[in-house]
Design brief:
With about 450 residues, the chain is α+β, with helices and mostly antiparallel strands. Among the domains are: about 120 residues, lambda repressor-like DNA-binding domains (434 Repressor (Amino-terminal Domain), Orthogonal Bundle); about 60 residues. About 50% of the residues lie in helices and about 10% in strands. It contains 20 helices and six strands. The chain has a six-stranded mixed beta sheet. Helix 2 packs across helix 3. The longest helix is centred in the middle third of the chain and has 30 residues. The two termini are about 45 Å apart.
Length: about 450
């Protein structure tokens, strides 16, 4: 068995650990003391019978003397040294530490593995905070309630006399804010515990509708049937777990749109979805449909048909989101407006023109995305009213050959965006200025 350069060091450490004299080890192993001295100072390489005899006397396996510490431990020490700022260590010294002090070496390796795990957890939680609009909104609501309660209570606790009517008003404010704080805290706790689910976090009819769509994975087999009609839509709405008539009305509108798209573009028309996703503009022209309709229809197809995850957002002319389908790596706020750098907002300055963009959302490990954007006419113009438009943006993961340039870095919303030098920022981020607009190197 070949021995490494530090076999002698390991022999000496084992001998000293057993309080054995060098002369005794040499005698029992059948070699001279001077030869053993040269071996222990790594000035003679040994193997075969001599190594086996020394291992026998020391009561250890010959392999532990020849190979020393496990390669994984040595590599862990080397990596820990390389990651330590200002620390310079050679590969030989790492093997020396692992050979001389195997227990300490394993401790260093274990601690480095633990540090790596903790860093991953911190990065995951930071990324979740940066890209989870509900979590940020819930925390903001809790802080706002606490601030309001503190303001009202400080007035009541002051030495200045307060009229009874005003006292009642402040007391009522404290009561209302306390109830709002309790509700926000309960909602936040349920969300963090993962017991409430997407729909339980719904706070508005629109959010409630989005939750129902997500629960169905944005696909309704009943509406794909040629016999589907308004009664089919009504049946689905009636079975949905919605909390208000307003939410049911919004869901009904979405499903009526789904039914219209399914009837004009049956699933059979998407025999080769990959080619459609590669060039949806050509496909839309081929079947004589507006591009926005094709993009919406693609978002309603099941993933086993599409072959890959796709997301979609739809906004009105005021910038408010009216439809959403997020995918991993691209977070979409539940309500309100989103990052103004999203290509979907650029479509308003290029009405009727399709836009194809390469984007990447801010955050560690975020993928590059291809975004297709188009506007669609929702309500035609008449003498009595103006035309109503909506913009649609479909996103899919970019293939390796499609990342030919630097992606446009975008956020989710300003409140949870950590891009420090964003030219389109509307309000400060709760995360502070943590990151520049330079893209991830891992792309």
């Amino acid at each position: 068995m070949p021995a490494s350069a530090l076999t002698g060091t390991r022999i000496r450490e084992h001998r000293l650990a057993q309080k054995m004299r060098q002369a005794d080890l040499a005698r029992d192993a059948g070699i001279s003391a001077s030869y053993l001295n040269l071996i222990e100072h790594n000035r003679r390489r040994i193997a075969g019978k001599v190594l086996a005899d020394i291992a026998r006397v020391l009561g250890v396996e010959a392999s532990s003397l020849a190979e020393g510490a496990e390669r994984s431990v040595i590599e862990a020490i080397q990596t820990a040294a390389a990651e330590a700022p200002g620390f310079d260590a050679s590969a030989a010294s790492a093997e020396d530490v692992a050979s001389r002090y195997p227990d300490w070496a394993r401790l260093i390796a274990d601690q480095r593995a633990r540090i790596t795990q903790l860093e991953h957890s911190v990065n995951t939680l930071t990324d979740r905070l940066a890209h989870d609009p509900f979590l940020t909104d819930a925390l903001h609501e809790v802080i706002s309630s606490v601030t309001s309660i503190r303001s009202s209570s400080s007035i009541l606790s002051s030495d200045e006399p307060i009229e009874p009517d005003w006292q009642k008003r402040f007391q009522q404010n404290i009561f209302n804010d306390s109830r709002r704080l309790a509700e926000s805290a309960q909602s936040l706790a349920s969300y963090l515990e993962g017991t409430s689910g997407e729909t339980a976090n719904a706070g508005t009819p629109l959010e409630d509708c989005f939750g129902a769509l997500q629960a169905a994975e944005y696909h309704f087999s009943a509406l794909e049937s040629p016999d589907a009609n308004a009664e089919t839509v009504a049946a689905i709405v009636g079975q949905a777990a919605l909390s208000s008539d307003a939410a049911r009305a919004i869901l009904r509108s979405n499903l009526e749109r789904y039914l219209s798209l399914a009837q004009s573009m049956p699933m059979a028309a998407f025999a080769d979805v990959s080619s459609v996703l590669a060039d949806p503009v050509s496909y839309a022209r081929h079947i004589g449909q507006p591009l926005a309709n094709v993009l919406q229809r693609l978002s309603y197809l099941p993933q086993e048909v599409v072959g890959q995850p796709i997301g979609l957002v739809q906004c009105d002319a005021a910038g408010a989101l009216v439809a959403r389908k997020p995918i991993k790596g691209f977070d979409v706020p539940r309500i309100g407006s989103a990052c103004s750098l999203w290509p979907v907002y650029a479509s308003w300055s290029r009405m009727g023109m399709p836009i194809k963009s390469l984007i990447q959302q801010d955050g560690q490990g975020r993928p590059a995305l291809i975004a297709y954007t188009a506007t669609t006419e929702v309500i035609p113009a008449s003498f009595e009213r103006a035309c109503v438009y909506e913009a649609v943006m479909l996103v899919r993961y970019a293939q390796s050959g499609e990342v030919q340039s630097t992606p446009q870095l975008v956020g989710a919303t300003c409140r949870v965006c950590a891009i420090s030098d964003c030219p389109a920022r509307r309000e400060p981020s709760v995360l502070g200025s943590l990151r520049s607009s330079a893209p991830d190197d891992g792309l």
